[in-house]
Amino acid sequence: MLNDKITINSSEIAIKSFCNFIDGFARQGTYKMNVIQIMLNRGFEDWFHPLSADVIAKEYYDLVRKQSEEHSLNGIAKIFQESFSQKEIERHLNSLPFKALTTESLRTGKTPFKNANGKLIVREEYCIPTKQAHAAIQLAVENKLEDYFEMKQK
């Protein structure tokens, strides 16, 4: 019984920390949120499994293109204005969103991610396969994207 309460509390703390990490990002682009969104699209039981650039490259490219068109975004990387290139999108993913998601900063604090062998990995303490955890992180991502799109329209 006591162990259950400790687990619940540590899970709640981890999810709050994860959401604070997302909230701490400057509104500078959708790239990081899109990667997390693609992770979340796998469902509450699988969202935190390792992610590699080669597997998500096309889905990521299509998502950025769609957002760019729907929200009239300018300033997106040149590779999204050209035909899909698996190699270029993988390079972009590894150099920008994956790197940014795994870099700790004063603004965002400890990152819930690490990069190992070219894969984006959610640190063990943040791997919580519950609907509540999934929903909280999804809401944080949606709010950050909404803030970004609103800022771009002003």
SSE topology:
Elements: H1 2-23, H2 31-40, E1 51-52, H3 53-70, H4 86-95, H5 97-101, E2 113-116, E3 119-122, H6 131-153
Antiparallel strand pairs: 1-3, 2-3
Helix pairs in contact: 1-6, 2-3, 2-6, 3-4
What does the model show?
This protein has 154 residues and is mainly alpha-helical. It has one domain (2-153). It has helices spanning 2-23, 31-40, 53-70, 86-95, 97-101, 131-153; strands spanning 51-52, 113-116, 119-122. Strands 1-3-2 form a 3-stranded antiparallel β-sheet. Helix 2 (31-40) crosses helix 3 (53-70) and helix 3 packs across helix 4 (86-95). It starts with a helix and ends with a helix. The relative contact order is 0.21. The model has no long low-confidence stretch (mean pLDDT 90).
Structure in a nutshell:
This protein is mainly α.
The helix count comes to 6
Q: Report the order of strands and helices.
A: HHEHHHEEH
User: Which regions have little confidence, pLDDT < 50, spanning 5+ residues?
Assistant: none
What's the number of domains?
1
According to DSSP, the number of beta strands is: 3
Distance between the termini: 52 Å
- Chain-averaged pLDDT: 90
- The helix content, as a percent range, equals 55-70%
- Overall body shape: globular
Rg, rounded, reads 16 Å
| Spatial strand order of the main sheet | 1-3-2
Our estimate of the beta-strand percent is 5-15%
Main sheet makeup: 3 strands, antiparallel
* Helix and strand composition category: mainly alpha
